[in-house]
Write a structure and sequence with these properties.
Blueprint (H helix, E strand, L loop, with lengths): L2 H8 L2 H10 L6 H6 L4 E8 L4 E8 L2 E8 L8 H4 L3 E5 L1 H9 L4 H9 L4 E3 L1 H4 L1 H9 L1
Parallel strand pairs: 1-4
Antiparallel strand pairs: 1-2, 2-3, 4-5
């Protein structure tokens, strides 16, 4: 079994769902060209789930790590070296992904801390990633 196949088996819960959605980007020529000189890590943490997802973009490829989020210390920026973080509940993540949240609702959730974002400009790369899948 190759190393990438082992990693795919380890991904569970929320991390597995995110990986399944974004993995096709590794075959996407537009993605490879646009992100060929990019080194970026984005942490997505579904606070009501058991696993967070660390998305790693490096030299035109994308990889995923599932990290148990029961130990908050393991999710810190100085441990994982992430460049951006998006943290909220699973339901809100899927509302964001499907476009069910209006801009006004999203701003309200950010103000009330139901959505927590660190390094907004880095997290906005997610919009580009999902746009490339269409």
């Amino acid at each position: 079994m190759s190393e990438s196949e082992k990693n795919k088996k380890k991904l569970r819960g929320f991390a597995g769902v995110i990986a399944k959605q974004l993995e096709p980007l590794n075959e996407n020529e537009k993605f490879k060209k646009k992100f060929e000189n990019v080194d970026l890590k984005i942490l997505l943490n579904a606070t009501d789930g058991r696993y967070a997802c660390l998305i790693k973009i490096e030299d035109g490829s994308i990889e995923f790590d599932g990290i148990k989020n029961s130990e908050r210390e393991k999710l810190k920026q100085d441990v994982l070296n992430w460049d951006g973080k998006l943290e909220t509940t699973t339901n809100i993540f899927f509302d964001l992904a499907t476009g069910k949240l209006s801009t006004l609702n999203m701003i309200g959730k950010i103000i009330t801390r139901k959505i927590k974002i660190k390094s907004v400009s880095k997290v906005l790369v997610l919009n580009e990633l999902f746009a490339l899948l269409e």
